[in-house]
Design brief:
Length: 334
């Protein structure tokens, strides 16, 4: 890959925030409004080797050699998430194949095993990638991950390194939490902790239901009292996934640790004003040192926001179209 050429090509379509969505938090909130209808996805249930199930959602393509895009969603996301709807729409319009992995316990279905999903769980992603490549061996593969899904994607790419599947052409991570410890503090403290509380509204009930499946797995009463990510990760995420505590989880699963080992063209899309992160954790040094990492760092865009136009009721998103432009450039060079 000619990194300079890719950066130059993407510079032709820079992000310009909508005038009515200035500021990181406003960008983040506005992007929560769907800009596309929910596509008619075909749902498939895959059995895992540990006795659980994964739900995949597909849009077919007429050509078996058509490129395919795999999407990994963010924390508590699903096929209904606005970014998933938009990417499915754009991919279908090209005649490409679309696939989405709903992480364990997401999409309204409680999974069977004690473990669910977390920012560093990559085995399910590896399993799904292998399944897709086996089914469509002639199809170029692209992967896009959002927020938590972006962390999963970057960690997996770093883990496989030079052994990444030949079919994998390129990847894009949107608003990944490069440092989980920093991002946890941001969510727990900024705006009175409203960000963490927003996610805990669904995480806590799922954890209580999980404890009913596996009595004694963790202290359900203490989980009900959680008001921060750190408390929840200490009580639930850590113990149910083999970590000592939240600190151990954050210190070992942050994607920044895996960036130097990535060996496929990978766009990193992030905003300086992301309310879930801090600008100092943007990995400028890792990007400069790697021929594979393509920076798409913008001043204003929020967290998985990047609203460039439309209206507050039907926002127009930039990042999905930009990711596809990046994939086009990488495919042309491959």
């Amino acid at each position: 890959m000619n990194k300079s050429r890719v950066i130059e090509a993407l510079a032709a379509t820079p992000f310009r925030a909508a005038w009515w969505a200035r500021g990181g938090m406003l960008q983040t909130v506005m992007a929560m409004r769907p800009s596309a209808a929910l596509s008619q996805l075909r749902t498939e249930v895959l059995a895992t080797v540990d006795g659980d199930e994964l739900r995949m959602h597909h849009l077919a393509a007429a050509d078996a050699k058509a490129p395919m895009v795999l999407l990994l969603h963010g924390l508590e996301g699903s096929r209904h998430s606005p970014y998933a709807r938009e990417m499915a729409r754009l991919v279908a319009a090209r005649g490409w194949r679309f696939a989405m992995l709903e992480f364990r316990s997401c999409g309204g279905v409680l999974n069977r095993t004690l473990r669910t999903y977390h920012s560093g769980e990559t085995t399910d992603t590896a399993f799904v990638v292998a399944q897709l490549i086996a089914r469509f061996p002639a199809a170029p593969l692209f992967v896009i991950g959002y927020s938590l899904g972006g962390n999963v994607l970057l960690k997996w790419l770093g883990e496989v390194g030079d052994d990444a599947p030949p079919a994998l052409i390129a990847a894009t991570a949107v608003s990944p939490p490069f440092d989980l410890a920093v991002c946890s503090v941001q969510c727990d403290r900024r705006f009175g902790g409203v960000i963490a509380k927003h996610f805990l509204r669904t995480l806590i009930p799922k954890a209580i239901a999980k404890e009913r499946q596996f009595p004694g797995a963790f202290d359900a009463a203490a989980v009900r009292r959680c008001r921060t990510f750190r408390a929840f990760d200490d009580l639930v995420t850590g113990p149910s996934n083999g970590f000592r505590d939240a600190e151990h989880y954050y210190a070992t699963q942050s994607c920044r640790l895996f960036l130097p080992a990535i060996r496929r063209p990978t766009a990193l899309v992030a905003a300086v004003d992301d309310p879930l992160c801090r600008p100092e954790i943007l990995p400028h040094a890792a990007v400069a040192a790697s021929p594979f990492l393509i920076p798409q760092f913008v001043a204003n865009g929020g967290h998985v926001g990047f609203v460039e136009g439309g209206s507050p009721w039907r926002p127009r998103r930039w990042v999905e179209a930009q990711a596809l432009r990046f994939f086009d450039e990488c495919l042309a060079q491959s």
